[in-house]
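User: I'm writing a tutorial on reading structure tokens. Could you give me a worked example: one chain, its sequence, then its tokens, then a sentence or two explaining what the tokens reveal?
Assistant: Sure. Here is the example chain.
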Amino acid sequence: MENIQNWDVHLEVTDAPIDFASGHVDVALRYGNGQYPFASAERIMNEIVSPVCSPECREKMGGLHLVGELAKCQLIHEIGMTTTWERWFAMMQLPCPGMRGPGYSHGSMSIEAAVRGAGVALGRSVLVAEDLTAGRLISLFPEAKLEVEWGYDLAYRVGNQEHPKVSLFRSWIAQEVREFMQSIS
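And here are its predicted structure tokens:
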């Protein structure tokens, strides 16, 4: 089997539509709802969110041992995220304290704010895994996880699923995802 390390890989981080017609893109990894114009996609990893904060923030807030105590915390918001604090509080059958606290346009920014002690973020499992392992963040209520409709998808040109590059990349990324998921369990 061809070694993926011998490939010429170009990485571009963008929310722009994927242009498979140009011939310059074989596969794309997207965070989304699985629907991409002119592309086939398969979900490679679901996303789960749950409250996270820094150890210092937890201590400052008196330990945060009960879910209801989040109502007194500064909540960090990811602007544009479809899964919001409102949905999380609804899942917990609690009233949402409203949109108070800072909002950030990217998940990585909201996670960084939580690491710095700015409040409690609704952390996306993939984005917070390393910070949880390193102890920079704490999962406040590990049992209170909400699976969201968005996740990580492998997208490719319609009809190209059996192309050798796509097949090899699909196998490689599936193995990487399995290893990642084992490392965070």
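What the tokens reveal: The radius of gyration is 19 Å. The beta strands are 27-32, 39-53, 75-78, 103-104, 120-124, 138-139, 146-157.
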